[in-house]
Design a protein that fits this description.
about 280 residues; alpha/beta; Elongation Factor Tu (Ef-tu), domain 3; Rossmann fold; 2 domains; 7-stranded antiparallel β-sheet; 5-stranded parallel β-sheet; 4 helices
Length: about 280
C-alpha cells in the first residue's frame, strides 16, 4: 500500500509511493528506461492506455526528495531551509506485480531539470511515484485508427496500439534521427519521421504526414500526442478539413516548444470542438 500521507493531504490527491531505482537502461541515445521497485507499489495498476504518473524528484545534490510537513489546502509546506522536490509527468510503461517493478521511460531534453537529474541518478536512489491517473479506453467500433506520436509519447502509443482491434491502423512516430528508432509492438508498418536536431522543427514532420494521408472510409479514431503547437495544428486539420468530430479524437500536448514546465492536461482546449 502507499506510504502514509502528511497531515492535511487533500482526499482527492493521487497516492504517493516510495520507490528506489533498480536499474537505469539506455533504450536509445535520448531515451532512458528506469526500472523502479518498492513495496509501496503493491496494488499499483495501469488503468488505461496512456495513463500517467508523476515522478517526484529531488533537487540537484540530493538523492531523496523531501516530504512535506503538511498540506494547507493543496499547498505543500516544507520544513524551513528544505528545497522542495520537483515533479514531472510520464507514462507508466509496464508494471510487473510479482517483482513490484514499474518501468518508466524518460527522454533527455538538453539542460532540463529532469534530464539533469537522470544524468546523475544511480541505482538505490529514492524517488516518489504519484498516481496513476487518466488514460484512454480505446473504442472498439472503429473501421480504422490513426496513431501519431513524437518521441515523448512513444511509451503511451505502445499501450494504445496494444488495445486496437484488428482493423487498419495508420501509425507514425516522429523522432530526431535514425538512432532513436526502435521496435514498437503492434507497429510493424509504422512510418518513422526524422526531424533532425533543430528543435524548432518539432511536430512539423508529423503534421505533414497527417495532412498527406488518404484516410480510409468509415468511422475512424485518432490518437495524437506530440508538441503542443503541432497537436493543435493537427487537431484543427482533422476537424475542419477532414470532418472528424471531437468524439473521434484524442489529442495531447505532451510538451511545448520554449516552455520547460508545460502543464499537464493540454488537450487543445482552446480549439473548436473540445473536449477531445
Amino acid at each position: 500500500m502507499p506510504s502514509p500521507q502528511p497531515a492535511g493531504t487533500p482526499p482527492n490527491m493521487p497516492p504517493r509511493r516510495w520507490v528506489s531505482i533498480h536499474a537505469i537502461e539506455q533504450a536509445t541515445p535520448r531515451a532512458i528506461r528506469l526500472r523502479l521497485r518498492g513495496d509501496d507499489l503493491e496494488g499499483f495498476e495501469i488503468p488505461a492506455p496512456g495513463a500517467h504518473v508523476k515522478l517526484i524528484l529531488p533537487p540537484p545534490g540530493e538523492v531523496r526528495p523531501a516530504v512535506p510537513l503538511r498540506y494547507e489546502e493543496r499547498r505543500a509546506v516544507f520544513e524551513d531551509g528544505v528545497t522542495p522536490p520537483f515533479l514531472r509527468t510520464y507514462t507508466p510503461s509496464r508494471f510487473n506485480p510479482e517483482l513490484l517493478e514499474l518501468e518508466v521511460e524518460l527522454l533527455l531534453h538538453g539542460d532540463g531539470r529532469a534530464s539533469n537529474w537522470i544524468r546523475t541518478a544511480k541505482p538505490g536512489d529514492e524517488i516518489i511515484v504519484a498516481g496513476p491517473r487518466g488514460g484512454w479506453t480505446v473504442p472498439q467500433d472503429g473501421d480504422w485508427y490513426l496513431v501519431a506520436a513524437d518521441d515523448t509519447a512513444i511509451p503511451a502509443a505502445r499501450q494504445v496500439l496494444a488495445e486496437l482491434p484488428a482493423k487498419p491502423a495508420l501509425v507514425a512516430f516522429e523522432v530526431v534521427d535514425e538512432a532513436e528508432r526502435r521496435p514498437v509492438e503492434g507497429a510493424a508498418t509504422a512510418t518513422w519521421l526524422f526531424r533532425g536536431q533543430d528543435a524548432a522543427k518539432a511536430g512539423k514532420p508529423l503534421d505533414a504526414f497527417v495532412r498527406s494521408l488518404e484516410l480510409p472510409p468509415g468511422r475512424g479514431y485518432a490518437w495524437i500526442a506530440c508538441e503542443a503547437g503541432a497537436m493543435r495544428r493537427i487537431r484543427r486539420h482533422l476537424i475542419e478539413d477532414r470532418g472528424m468530430t471531437p468524439e473521434q479524437l484524442v489529442t495531447r500536448g505532451y510538451w511545448k516548444l520554449g516552455s520547460p514546465d508545460h502543464p499537464d492536461g493540454d488537450y487543445g482546449q482552446d480549439l473548436p470542438g473540445h473536449p477531445g
